[in-house]
Amino acid sequence: MKKEKLAGILLCIWFIGVLVVCIVKPDRDISYAERRKLATMPKLTVAGLLDGSFMDKHEKYLADQFPGRELFRRGKALFDYKILRKKEVHGIYVENGQAGELFYEFDEKAVAHAAKRVSYVVREKIQSPECHIYYGIIPDKSYYIAEEQGYPAIDYEKLTACFQDSLREERDRMTQILLWNSLTADDYYTTDLHWRQENIADVAEVIATVMGTQAYNEEELFWKTAGDFYGVYYGQAALPLAPDELCYGTNEQIDACQVYDPLTGEQTGVYDLERVNGLDRYDLFLSGPKPLLVIENPLANTGRRLVMFRDSFGSSLTPYLLRGYDEITLVDPRYFHPDLLEEYLTFTDQDVLFLFYTGLIGRGYLFK
Amino acid sequence: MLFSSIQFLYIFLPLVLLGCGLVALTGRFPIRNGLLLFASLFFYFLGEPRLFYLLPLEAMIGYASGLLLVRLKHRRILLGIVCAMYVGVLVYYKSQTVLPLGISFFTFQLVSYLIDVYRNQIPPQRNVISFLLYISFFPQLIAGPIVRYQDIEKQLTENRMSLPLVYDGMGRFIVGLAKKVLLANQMGELIELYRGLGEQSILFGWIYAFAFLFQIYFDFSGYSDMAIGLGRMVGFSLPENFRYPYLSTSITEFWRRWHMTLGQWFRDYVYIPLGGNRCSIGKQIRNVAIVWALTGLWHGMAVNFLLWGLYFAVLLLFEKFVIKSFLAKHPVVSHLYVLFFVTISFVIFNGAGVSGVLGDLGTLFGAGGVPFLGPMTLYYGRSYLVLMGICAIAATPYPSKILGKVKGSEMLKLAGLMVLLLLCTAYLVDGSFNPFLYFRF
What ipTM describes this predicted complex? Predict the structure, then answer.
């Protein structure tokens, strides 16, 4: 009986103790592991109480601010993965040290939507015959690791065919650049979906060759490190993964480049080292997501210009391509509507490259 | 607010324990019921703010009717009117898209209370706080067990709260929480995956059927465990609602082990008044059909629930008149028979209308050329294999028997409970899938 009393007291102490810690502990603003802002205490309103939204938000707030949240998430992930032997945690699996996302279904309508937006730009905005237009699809990491490890993966041929079919007649004005064979699983960060800049010289070379220009090779760049990089899969899965090393390549010409944001008037360099202290260290490359950027390359003197419609993969690829262009304009169609292009850009004789990641075009209506 | 929420676990529960503990320590027992009533109504308000008034309104009508039933001459008329009103409100809301929380449960408690008062089996409760607490007691308010007044009458006036009971109750609560969070919710995830995937195969159909068999059991019995545990913590003993139903060797036995308080309610207030089995065979068949049609409709005014209830009526009658002696002689066959037909029953239960039910059943038997296997079947089958194995073991009494034989200290048991509690907390903090099936009913 004494032991039962003691056990009862200990459990009461646990429940009441956690309550006290929850009250006393100051709230955190950001979870660096999950790379997101944490929920704050919701405002109590009669409407919120009556429609149940207050309670939902409050539960989310408690979960976000729970003492030892990271430890609990890690414990849960390990229990799922090691004890229950689940194949993935929160849609993330780890094989041979590589974290990959379970990605086995793509939305055909979303792919068609992306292709139609591309064909709209080609048809309506790029009317000059002097413009040479290219497109490429960047494979998801799962293309290289899923099937051989027994994970389901999307049918990339079907996705590509779906994209091409939806380009319609504009496809005849465009040259496809195939990247599938230029990459391996090791060319991607182990904890993130992106490719490693230091490993994509081959990709840059393939693209530059098709576009009739030259890209830097690895030896022409000085490689620097920006420290450890815990990618998006690390935070999503909460599994104990070793960090990647975030490297970036530069040289005199790249250092001399001016990156200009026409929407804000802000000027930066190709690498924004301040971003290394932010939520996503990958934002080091061209300051992260930006609707529109213009890179002036004063030391190139090639007489050529490139307009690249891209996503975040393009940010780490662009420095390689600076060898061949005096100016590169980067448009992110997730944040920039093509009807606004005329205000900032006239298509005359530029090379135009559409380069998107499969995960972006296959999973949502992300193109404006 | 769900029991399996951080709000409940780490705010509501500690505050209730603190309050009741202080009441017990200071010897001010009379205010315990007031405190628990306040907590129960607050709990209900947080879960059902828009239709909150229904509970106290119906409870007050029940309180007044109980008092009148021992005074009025035309007791039968009053009973009929009030019970018809309760059932009418229940049927009305059952046919709406939004069902007030717990209405199926507190309506049945109110009806049983009034009938028992009418039958002079119990005296009416004169203390309004005690009566309201009986109807709105938060541990069993939302999803049962359905408590008969005579089972709780004495407890409303006794102070039974003690540290060993608190510990015992917490143990039961944590086991129920683990059933819900670690097993039922994950089976729910698998079911969502099955529903969301384009792939159909016979094997995935059966994986889905077994996943739902486990989900509904661990969800509902976990909730009942939590309710019983919470009751114990504050000094109440609530009736058992489940006793390892999947070990049954007949459907009759299954229903003596599954949602026991609902079965007892229908037996006492519908089946026996209709004549039970002490009448002609024709009337027996009629009685069984009525009871099981109502049992099905109690879960919702949908065709699949009615089909589900009648399916059991047919099985029970078939057992009673045809295969009763065979089942008694062949325990292994009878066990497999129960598992098979109960699994099928829950496929009917969880189907989306008649076409959905037929589609799901068709998949199980390969109708329309559904393949036996597919890549996603293999993938998710492997991914959830261990968990399904754990569910199969946890649905038997063997884990608790083995634990009972461990001659360790209470501290060992406490350590096990803490591990379960920490794991459940981890799942809740991680924001995992967390529905409660029986809130729908």
Answer: 0.88
